[in-house]
């Protein structure tokens, strides 16, 4: 509460106040509770809601937790009417979910109470009958229920989102359309579950809730496992790529930064979620093949012989050889293999030009060169971002694809680049430094032909 | 068709034959006497086909079809549809499951993914088992839900009990097949199968019961309403299985950087990990431990990346122990960087410990497997294998764990191809 900006505080007080007035009226004014009907049902539903609300939920979308409790709240709309639904929603205050401060709990309880009451009123307005539905009432129930759910969801989103917007001091993130769709889909799924709980109440009472929610909890558990594995996977791949870089003191962290810059460009040119994921890993893995290049070649000061240059040119292929066994990377393979092609066709390994170069490779090439210029090297300090951008502009159309350069410059304007921290002079015994960096466009590789 | 039957052992063939017989009997009988309530049969059959179409592969190469299984279960447990009692026979249930499955498997076949016959047979047999147990009781249970008793509890209790029995039978069959396939102890296989099958089994069981009960109050709309939530569960498991598979592939792939960099012989990490996992199975390790062992074995040489010059040939068994220990420490440090594979890092760190220091079993296995591969390499020559084993046995005194070496001898003996004259 203390850290909140003042509009957020005002909003919080207003929402909690409104809910307090609402619930107070229900409890105090006689006759209001008559609509609830069966107290046992109310108690079971409230417990159910509380249990679901207390379960740690996962964020489907960055700022949101959709929890299973949503189903219980909607079932309450049918079974115990608007007043009951408000009381059920209020129990969110008692939630014991880890890491939820009292302020948040109060706000959650308040907004669930408001949403539940409003949805219940709408349900009745459209002809929904409050109470435990009889076996053959089901068809009559669906229409009003759909309207109630259609109100509950946006209201819930608006109330919560307003709070998030007011509370977060940074600029609001754009919600990706795909994330939004996924989010609405899960809401729809939960609404269906609420309908089932209500529809089966007549048959097996509260057991219906157990039967309905068990698969859901298992699904959540599986999603939890999935997210944990995904995080673990990202950490593992980053650690392994950094292990490959330990040989060269100055390129540490290069792979993660290239991955980040590639993702920025890819987002700017509007790639979809799947491709974004692939390019993130492609950027991460683009240089693993460097290990196959003998150290003495990488470190050679002065012009290279033809053979030595051939060894360097092979490194994208070496990288490909290593990652070939990972099957989600189809497009990423091309990105790794061709990240040293040039727009004018004078790059390696195959000398492709312009649009022949796979899109991933054109993205990674820009990110790679940029990171190389903005990090320290043994033969020069890191260049400022402006200088590096000017170099990219200079190379646009010859070395780089102008579209990607422009996209990257736009992305940099939106989120400033965090250059790597100053590399302190390397400890002498443990590490190696190269005197050349083949990614650095300002240090062209000289090749001596002839014997 | 030959491709389908390749690599099946006798147990699997027996299972497939049994399932085939049951399916034929069901279809033939149903064709003879005609379908009872064809609309319901078609509805459920369609859902089974969809589930079969959307089957997924769980970690450990286990194929499951949760949506299809739940639909089959629902059809088996169906008592009535909007208060009209249903009396389809067990044989009809079998026929619907079989036809639905085949319909769902056809698209897979069309795009050249041959069916996993053993997995399909297991699904069908489990369904048939439950059908033969439950259908005869359906009439009685339905009567109880009507006036004067009007109670659903007996039906619910019978359903849950029979499902538990059917799931247990399924797990036992799966464990038997698996024990034969990956050569592990039956009891370990049962434990692994239960661990894998429990969450998904519980979800499928709950959904199946729910489907049967929902048809009582919602008619066939229950099928539509259910397709969405079941899909959520399915998607979650699919994503989980996908990332697990990718993870393993990635560690396998990236463990080869040491080979490309010339630190170790080509194929070394892969051979060591295969041998280590085989030894672990031989010693009765469970699947989660085996996975950690595999990761640690794949990455046991990753510490060499921090070395200035590759050790010639990377034969760590021949270099001085201090050096080897340093490499192990460096490797563990790299793996600890992930922040999630701490146990794997620990296994790598202790791979050089002698028996006196009491390292974990997995570390002992890696140590032995690594030494064996340094001596034998990719060769499959029996004499060379025998000589290497002999040499490791001599080192048993303090270096290698005798139990591990003996397990290795058995594994190597099995893996080495028999000399043909």
TrEMBL record, chain A:
<keyword id="KW-0812">Transmembrane</keyword>
<dbReference type="Pfam" id="PF13487">
    <property type="entry name" value="HD_5"/>
</dbReference>
<protein>
    <submittedName>
        <fullName>HD-GYP domain-containing protein (C-di-GMP phosphodiesterase class II)</fullName>
    </submittedName>
</protein>
<feature type="transmembrane region" description="Helical">
    <location>
        <begin position="6"/>
        <end position="28"/>
    </location>
</feature>
<feature type="compositionally biased region" description="Pro residues">
    <location>
        <begin position="417"/>
        <end position="428"/>
    </location>
</feature>
<feature type="transmembrane region" description="Helical">
    <location>
        <begin position="146"/>
        <end position="167"/>
    </location>
</feature>
<feature type="region of interest" description="Disordered">
    <location>
        <begin position="414"/>
        <end position="451"/>
    </location>
</feature>
<feature type="transmembrane region" description="Helical">
    <location>
        <begin position="179"/>
        <end position="198"/>
    </location>
</feature>
<feature type="transmembrane region" description="Helical">
    <location>
        <begin position="71"/>
        <end position="94"/>
    </location>
</feature>
<dbReference type="InterPro" id="IPR037522">
    <property type="entry name" value="HD_GYP_dom"/>
</dbReference>
<keyword id="KW-0472">Membrane</keyword>
<dbReference type="InterPro" id="IPR003607">
    <property type="entry name" value="HD/PDEase_dom"/>
</dbReference>
<feature type="domain" description="HD-GYP">
    <location>
        <begin position="229"/>
        <end position="424"/>
    </location>
</feature>
<keyword id="KW-1133">Transmembrane helix</keyword>
<feature type="transmembrane region" description="Helical">
    <location>
        <begin position="40"/>
        <end position="59"/>
    </location>
</feature>
From TrEMBL, chain B:
<keyword id="KW-1133">Transmembrane helix</keyword>
<dbReference type="InterPro" id="IPR003607">
    <property type="entry name" value="HD/PDEase_dom"/>
</dbReference>
<dbReference type="InterPro" id="IPR052020">
    <property type="entry name" value="Cyclic_di-GMP/3'3'-cGAMP_PDE"/>
</dbReference>
<protein>
    <recommendedName>
        <fullName>HD domain-containing protein</fullName>
    </recommendedName>
</protein>
<feature type="domain" description="HD">
    <location>
        <begin position="268"/>
        <end position="373"/>
    </location>
</feature>
<feature type="transmembrane region" description="Helical">
    <location>
        <begin position="151"/>
        <end position="175"/>
    </location>
</feature>
<dbReference type="Pfam" id="PF01966">
    <property type="entry name" value="HD"/>
</dbReference>
<feature type="transmembrane region" description="Helical">
    <location>
        <begin position="124"/>
        <end position="145"/>
    </location>
</feature>
<dbReference type="InterPro" id="IPR006674">
    <property type="entry name" value="HD_domain"/>
</dbReference>
<feature type="transmembrane region" description="Helical">
    <location>
        <begin position="196"/>
        <end position="214"/>
    </location>
</feature>
<feature type="transmembrane region" description="Helical">
    <location>
        <begin position="220"/>
        <end position="237"/>
    </location>
</feature>
<feature type="transmembrane region" description="Helical">
    <location>
        <begin position="93"/>
        <end position="112"/>
    </location>
</feature>
<keyword id="KW-0812">Transmembrane</keyword>
<keyword id="KW-0472">Membrane</keyword>
């Amino acid at each position: 509460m203390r850290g909140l900006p003042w509009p957020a505080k005002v909003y919080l007080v207003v929402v909690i106040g409104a809910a307090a007035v609402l619930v107070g009226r229900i409890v105090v004014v006689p006759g209001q509770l008559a609509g609830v009907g069966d107290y046992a049902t109310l108690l079971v539903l409230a417990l159910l809601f509380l249990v679901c609300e207390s379960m740690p939920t996962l964020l489907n979308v960055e700022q949101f937790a959709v929890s299973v409790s949503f189903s219980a709240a909607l079932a309450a709309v049918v079974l115990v009417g608007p007043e009951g639904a408000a009381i059920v929603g209020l129990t969110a205050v008692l939630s014991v979910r880890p890491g939820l401060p009292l302020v948040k709990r109060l706000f959650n309880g308040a907004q669930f109470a408001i949403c539940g009451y409003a949805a219940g009123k709408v349900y009745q307005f459209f002809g929904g009958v409050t109470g435990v539905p009889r076996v053959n009432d089901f068809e009559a129930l669906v229409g009003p229920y759909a309207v109630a759910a259609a109100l509950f969801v946006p209201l819930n989103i608006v109330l919560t989102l307003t709070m998030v917007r007011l509370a977060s001091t940074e600029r609001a993130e754009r919600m990706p359309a795909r994330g939004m769709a996924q989010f609405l889909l899960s809401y729809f799924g939960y609404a269906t579950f609420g309908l089932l709980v209500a529809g089966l109440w007549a048959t097996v009472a509260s057991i219906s809730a157990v039967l309905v929610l068990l698969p859901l909890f298992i699904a959540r558990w599986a999603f939890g496992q999935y997210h944990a594995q995904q995080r673990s996977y990202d950490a593992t791949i980053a650690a392994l790529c950094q292990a490959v870089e330990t040989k060269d003191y100055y390129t540490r962290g290069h792979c993660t930064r290239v991955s980040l810059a590639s993702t920025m460009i890819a987002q700017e040119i509007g790639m979809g979620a799947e491709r974004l994921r692939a390019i993130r890993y492609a950027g991460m893995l683009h240089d693993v093949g460097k290990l196959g290049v003998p150290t003495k070649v990488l470190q050679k000061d002065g012009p290279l012989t033809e053979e030595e240059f051939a060894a360097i040119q092979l490194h994208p292929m070496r990288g490909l050889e290593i990652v070939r066994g990972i099957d989600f990377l189809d497009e990423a393979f091309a990105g790794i293999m061709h990240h040293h092609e040039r727009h004018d066709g004078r790059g390696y390994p195959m000398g492709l030009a312009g649009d022949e170069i796979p899109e991933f490779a054109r993205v990674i090439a820009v990110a790679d060169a940029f990171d190389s210029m903005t990090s320290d090297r043994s033969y020069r300090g890191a260049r400022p971002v402006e200088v590096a951008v000017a170099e990219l502009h200079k190379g646009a159309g010859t070395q780089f694809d102008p579209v990607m350069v422009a996209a990257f410059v736009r992305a940099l304007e939106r989120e400033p680049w965090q250059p790597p921290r100053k590399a302190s002079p390397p400890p002498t015994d443990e590490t190696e430094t190269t005197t050349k960096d083949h990614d650095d466009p300002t240090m062209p590789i000289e090749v001596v032909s002839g014997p | 068709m030959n491709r389908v039957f390749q690599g099946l052992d006798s147990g699997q063939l027996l299972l497939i034959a049994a399932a085939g017989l049951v399916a034929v009997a069901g279809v033939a009988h149903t064709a003879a006497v005609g379908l009872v309530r064809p609309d319901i049969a078609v509805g459920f059959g369609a859902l089974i086909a969809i589930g079969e179409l959307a089957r997924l592969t769980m970690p450990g190469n286990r194929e499951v079809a949760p949506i299809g299984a739940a639909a089959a279960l629902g059809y088996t447990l169906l008592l009535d549809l909007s208060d009209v009692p249903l009396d389809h026979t067990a044989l009809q249930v079998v026929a619907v499951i079989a036809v639905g499955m085949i319909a769902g498997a056809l698209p897979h076949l069309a795009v050249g993914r041959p069916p996993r016959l053993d997995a399909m047979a297991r699904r069908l047999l489990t369904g048939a088992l439950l059908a033969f147990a439950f259908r005869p009781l359906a009439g009685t249970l339905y009567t109880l839900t009507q006036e004067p008793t009007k109670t659903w509890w007996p039906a619910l209790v019978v359903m849950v009990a029979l499902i538990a029995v059917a799931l247990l039978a399924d797990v036992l069959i799966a464990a038997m097949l698996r024990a034969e396939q990956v050569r592990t102890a039956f009891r370990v296989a049962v434990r692994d199968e239960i661990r894998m099958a429990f969450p998904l089994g519980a979800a499928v069981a709950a959904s199946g019961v729910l489907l049967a009960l929902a048809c009582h109050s919602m008619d066939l709309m229950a099928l539509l309403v259910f397709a969405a939530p079941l899909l959520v569960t399915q998607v979650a498991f699919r994503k989980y299985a996908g990332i697990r598979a990718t993870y393993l592939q990635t560690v396998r792939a990236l463990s080869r950087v040491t080979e490309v960099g010339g630190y170790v012989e080509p194929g070394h990490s892969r051979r060591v990990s295969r041998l280590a996992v085989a030894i672990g199975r031989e010693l009765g390790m469970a699947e989660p431990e085996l996975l950690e062992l595999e990761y640690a074995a794949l990455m046991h040489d990753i510490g060499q990346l921090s070395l200035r010059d590759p050790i010639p040939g990377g034969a760590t068994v021949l270099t001085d122990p201090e050096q080897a220990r340093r490499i192990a420490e460096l490797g563990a440090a790299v793996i600890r960087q992930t922040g999630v594979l701490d146990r794997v890092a620990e296994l790598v760190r202790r791979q050089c410990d002698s028996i006196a220091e009491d390292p974990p079993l997995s570390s002992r296995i890696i140590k032995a497997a690594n030494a064996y591969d340094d001596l034998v390499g990719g060769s499959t020559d029996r004499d060379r294998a025998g000589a290497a084993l002999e040499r490791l046995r001599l080192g048993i005194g303090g270096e290698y764990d005798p139990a591990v070496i003996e397990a290795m001898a058995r594994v190597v003996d099995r893996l080495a191809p028999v000399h043909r004259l």
